[in-house]
Amino acid sequence: MTTIFEALRESHEIQRDLAEKLLQTSGDTAERRELFKQLKNELFAHEAAEDRYFYIPLMMTDSGLNITRHALAEHHEMDEMIEELTATELSNPGWIAIAKKLSEKVHHHLKEEEHGFFQQAGKILGEEQKTALAVQYKNEYQRYKDMKKDMLVQS
């Protein structure tokens, strides 16, 4: 049975990979456009499902509250960077600087989750809850991935 932690890690790997690839692009190219769209969609689907089936259950406990507050604040920062990137011309020399900041924030956030939050959450969530949340998370994540992409983020 997959636990919520394993389910979240799958998307984390995709995010790291897309963020790295995005930084290798230059100018307003089809490749940059496509990778940015994929990363934007991946982050959105992951974040929406993770907030609902990982952070909200943790928020219900005293010990989970601080982790949750911190993580949700970082999600918000990433959302703002994505909005900034969306509003900036892909050919703008400043675009890659913002993308680099986003990539650094993504890497920092995932590392913090995997090396800190997951351990703390592991003590808070029961065994059955860990597998039940994984199923719910995966369904929600897939639902967002399948949605009409452009409706999700203002372009």
From TrEMBL:
InterPro entries listed in its UniProt record: Hemerythrin-like
UniProt superkingdom: Bacteria
Gene3D superfamilies (UniProt xref): nmb1532 protein domain like
UniProt signal peptide: none
Domain Hemerythrin-like: 3-120
PANTHER family per UniProt: HHE DOMAIN PROTEIN (AFU_ORTHOLOGUE AFUA_4G00730) (PTHR35585)
Name of this protein: Hemerythrin-like domain-containing protein
